[in-house]
Amino acid sequence: MKKLRVVIAGTVGAGKTTFVKSASDIDVVEIERDLTDKSLSVKKKTTVAFDFGKLILDDQDLHIYGTPGQSRFDFMWDILIKDADRYILLVAANQPNGFSYAREILTFMNERVQVPFIIGMTHRDCPDALSPEEIADSIGIANTNNSPPIITVNPNIRTSVIEALSVLVSHEL
Ligand SMILES: Nc1nc2c(ncn2[C@@H]2O[C@H](COP(=O)(O)OP(=O)(O)OP(=O)(O)O)[C@@H](O)[C@H]2O)c(=O)[nH]1
Ligand SMILES: [Mg+2]
Prior knowledge:
alpha/beta; Rossmann fold; 7-stranded mixed beta sheet; 5 helices; 7 strands; about 30% helix; binds guanosine-5'-triphosphate; binds magnesium ion
């Protein structure tokens, strides 16, 4: 079976760890710590190294790595993206102040690898979520035939996560 390394990148609290946990057939390795800066988010923990899970999808053995959201751990982004076959950038649709940060993450990744990727908008079920068009604009993705697929995904729902991974696996550059 073909092994495919998939990286889940994205902004702080976008839902990367939740995504890996929903996708995985095995117990997920999570390396998190308590958030010291509580103002960052309402949540208590943040990823400080990576998450790891596995899923067999369409006869492919997906190894799924979640990255930390905070840029002080960007040495982990570097380590994880270098071996990636594909990646997803998760962006929380209800946090517009994170959009320019999402753009920076995208630049970071695309400077290191040229692999297929998609944009997954999370928190679309939350109040004040912005539209895919507004988000694409803010993170600098032109709406053309060459642009990466932009989808809505809810990391809390396994079927939604698997659908996102199916789009990723079938997307070519
Ligand atoms: N309602 C809703 N909640 C979401 C969605 N995506 C993620 N969440 C919630 O957002 C919170 C943060 O999720 P995490 O998975 O810890 O986020 P993360 O991206 O790993 O965060 P860092 O590791 O700190 O960068 C969790 O409580 C999730 O349940 C979504 O689409 N809708
Ligand atoms: Mg995390």
